[in-house]
Design goal:
The complex is a heterodimer of chains A (332) and B (382). By secondary structure, chain A is mainly α. Chain A is built from 15 helices and 2 strands. Chain A has one domain: MetI-like (MetI-like fold), CATH 1.10.3720.10. The longest helix of chain A is centred in the middle third of the chain and has 38 residues. The radius of gyration of chain A is 24 Å and the shape is globular. In chain B, the strands form 3 sheets. Chain B has a 3-stranded antiparallel β-sheet with strand order 1-2-5, with no helix packed on it. Chain B has a two-stranded antiparallel ribbon with strand order 3-4. In chain B, helix 5 crosses helix 8, helix 5 runs antiparallel to helix 11 and helix 9 packs antiparallel against helix 11. Chain B is extended and about 110 Å long. Classes of the chains: A mainly alpha (332), B alpha+beta (382). The interface between A and B is large, with 49 and 41 residues.
Chain lengths: 332, 382
């Protein structure tokens, strides 16, 4: 088991390296460097440019050196916990990101739990009652969930939540709790606001998961061991719980690799619409103002978050399924 | 006494005992595409969705004719005007399609524009008529419209936006961009998918390993932030057309992985087949073997999976344009239209600005069901 986890963590390293290269290329793509556009912006606003500070930043982040070297510096900096400097906020990136990353993680995890809680019973029901009215109805609902753009659902839900429940619009907590230390009331306020983004972000992921779970369980139900079990007189519920469901459960955990990118993508756009204090709006504004260290770190954080999520699901899967622990693999 | 062995001298025709009925013959001799078509035809929902899609795509050829107004015509007297209903009967008397006239008053308390209906003013719609001029397919001037507003009146089937532009006209013409972006994007990602997946599957070894790694990385990355980052890179001073292609390429850049995977796994199994070995022995080059012998074997399957990834592209464009990182006005797509509906006031006060989402959902559902049907049909021997 330890051996497996170790091997799995080692294979993460090249993946993360490729991701960091991709991110670096993307943040380098706009013409000019960050400081040039920053200076131009300052001058256009008629503000004076602090030559010394610019010079210091240029030196600090090695912007005068060739690209591969810059990449190396960026990478080493990140390993030491220095993610660069946000020109827009005039702060180190780590200070800007802080809480926001935590809230992104919180929303993502809650959404995944929600997705599981909804998708699991519905997926099983659809598979065991194939071609029934319930199956058709739920499938149609699922398709609708896939087809509706997240941001629109967010807008509409926000409106109705405000009209019917009086939830304050936007944000992740009632206005009076912003910038206050953590307390029980603050937590309650967050929970009151959390359900809208969770449902909105969860819909498309849930719909996808129901479809995949249904297909997977259907395959399993047609196998011969199920027929054998039924022929031997096992009651249907016990038969389902004892064998096919267990195998489908593996897939369920493995599917987090498909789910997590969807959830995080959804979280970004929904956060912009609902002005949640997560990474979404900040990433958008960083991209628009070409504050590229900030944007780059965000992309990197999101990627690392996904990769780690997949790692966790792989380890869980290994715990569940001896075939994986022992070196084989299952087909996703 | 053993039985005498007897052989008839008559010439033997094996078909005489295993004669195929005409139906069977038709089935066994049909090409793969024909079999696919037969199988697809039985899938009701897929056929209906196929027809819906075909109608949608046909409509983009004539969007100016279908739309009652031009894309940019402003009606400054009718800003944020709610949808006008089409009536058939007035005072219990059949008149044909008509709308009621409208007045205008400003609610001074909340500064909201109201457009009360004048029940006595009956304005019949005109059909096959001359309206706003446009250049048909960019070739010649035309004024012909399928339906026009009544004389001295307006016809806003789905209301107007903040500049007083007719939403219905804008939606029908926005379809042009939104629908083509999916097709162009899928064409690009199809190309990438076949080339990269083909190389990985045919050569195997380290090429395969590198490609697999790359695909894994791209798939593990949340799409939207990456799309956002890439489209933020597009220079602001590009022309709308260039931006359009830029966005398409960006959408395609992340989408080819699924196709490449399908191509790879199919090739890996097919290249072991005897006919492939035979072609190799006869000296065919890899390009010819892949293109001529292997690809046709699973082309249908590929097309089906491509159909299933069009919706993601359409949604992607909508999301990007909604955030203001995608297409920019004056290019009009469904996403650009929804960009106007960004804040909650719209939902509360002018909900008709959300209408563009209806065609988005419809087209995406249709693509999903049609793609599902195609995928089932793609394997006609099952």
């Amino acid at each position: 088991m330890l051996h497996y986890i170790l091997r799995r963590i080692l294979t993460m390293i090249p993946t993360l390296l490729i991701i960091s290269m991709l991110v670096f290329v993307i943040i380098q793509l706009p013409p000019g460097d960050y400081l040039e556009s920053h200076i131009a912006e300052l001058q256009s606003q008629g503000e004076s440019v602090d030559e010394k500070k610019i010079e210091f930043l240029r030196k600090q982040y090695g912007l005068d050196r060739p690209l591969p070297e810059q990449y190396g510096l960026w990478l080493i900096g990140m390993l030491q916990g220095d993610f660069g400097y946000s020109f827009e906020y005039d702060l180190p990136v780590t200070d800007v990101v802080g809480d926001r990353l935590f809230l992104t993680v919180l929303i993502s995890i809650t959404t995944i739990l929600f997705t599981w809680a909804v998708a699991f019973p519905i997926g099983i029901y659809s598979a065991t009652h194939q071609y029934s009215w319930g199956d058709y109805g739920l499938s149609t609902l699922g398709f609708l969930g896939l087809a509706t753009p997240n941001f629109l659902l967010a807008l509409v839900m926000l409106y109705f939540a405000n009209v019917y429940f009086g939830t304050s619009i936007g944000g992740l907590m009632a206005p009076e709790y912003i910038d206050t230390p953590w307390s029980f009331d603050k937590l309650v306020s967050i929970l009151e606001h959390l359900w809208i983004p969770v449902i909105v972000i969860g819909t498309s992921g849930t719909a996808g998961m129901i479809r995949r779970l249904r297909a997977n369980l259907l395959d399993e139900l047609q196998k011969q061991y199920v027929t054998t079990g039924r022929a031997k007189g096992l009651p249907p519920g016990r038969l389902l719980r004892k064998y096919p469901l267990r195998i489908a459960l593996n897939f369920f955990v493995a599917d987090i690799g498909n789910l997590l990118p969807t959830v995080i993508s959804g979280a970004e756009i929904v956060a912009v619409v609902m002005s949640l204090p997560t990474t979404g709006p900040l990433l958008l504004s960083a991209l628009q103002s070409q504050d590229m260290y900030l944007a780059g770190s965000f992309l990197m954080f999101l990627a690392v978050l996904t990769v780690f999520g997949v790692l966790v699901s792989d380890i869980l899967l290994a715990l569940l399924d001896p075939r994986i622990r022992l070196g084989g693999g299952i087909d996703k | 006494m053993s039985a005498r062995h007897f052989v008839s001298g008559e010439p033997f025709d094996p078909h005489s005992i295993e004669a195929l009925t005409p139906v069977q013959e038709k089935y066994y001799l049909a090409s793969q595409w024909k079999l696919m078509w037969w199988k697809l035809r039985r899938h009701r929902l897929a056929v209906i969705c196929g027809v819906i899609l075909a109608l949608n795509y046909a409509s983009i050829l004539f969007s100016e004719v279908i739309a009652p107004y031009d894309l940019h015509t402003r009606h400054t007297d009718y800003i944020y005007s709610p949808p006008q209903a089409v009536h058939l009967f007035h005072d219990g008397e059949f008149i044909g399609p008509f709308v009621y006239g409208r007045g205008y008053e400003l609610d001074m308390e909340i500064l909201k524009r109201n457009y009360p209906e004048h029940r006595d003013e009956v304005l019949p719609l005109r059909f096959f008529c001359a309206g706003d001029p446009y250049r048909f397919w960019g070739l010649f001037e035309a004024r012909f419209h399928f339906v026009c507003p009544p004389e001295n009146g307006t016809f806003f089937l789905l209301g107007t936006d903040r500049l007083g532009r007719d939403m219905f006209s804008r939606i029908t013409q926005g379809a042009r961009v939104s629908l083509t972006i999916g097709l162009v994007g899928i064409a690009i990602s199809f190309f990438f998918g076949i080339v990269i997946g083909g190389l990985a599957g045919y050569y195997g070894g380290w090429v395969d390993a590198v490609v697999q790694r790359l695909i894994e990385v791209i798939r593990s990355f949340p799409e939207l932030p990456l799309w956002m980052a890439l489209s933020a890179v597009l220079p602001v001073n590009w022309s709308p057309i260039l931006i359009f292609f830029g966005i398409t390429v960006i959408l395609a850049l992340l989408d080819w992985t699924g196709l490449a995977r399908a191509v790879r796994s199919k090739l890996l199994s097919l290249r072991e087949e005897d006919y492939c070995a035979a072609a190799e022995l006869m000296g065919a080059r890899p390009g010819r073997i892949i293109g001529r012998h292997l690809l046709p074997g699973f082309m249908s399957h590929l097309i089906a999976s491509a159909t299933l990834s069009v919706p993601a592209m359409i949604l992607g464009e909508t999301a990007l344009s909604f955030l203001g990182l995608g297409l920019r006005p004056p290019v009009t797509s469904w996403g650009v239209l929804l960009n106007e509906a960004q804040n909650i006031n719209v939902v509360a006060l002018y909900p008709w600005l959300l209408f563009p989402v209806v065609p988005v959902v419809l087209v995406i559902l249709a693509f999903n069901f049609f793609g599902d049907g195609l995928r089932d049909a793609a394997d006609p021997y099952k």
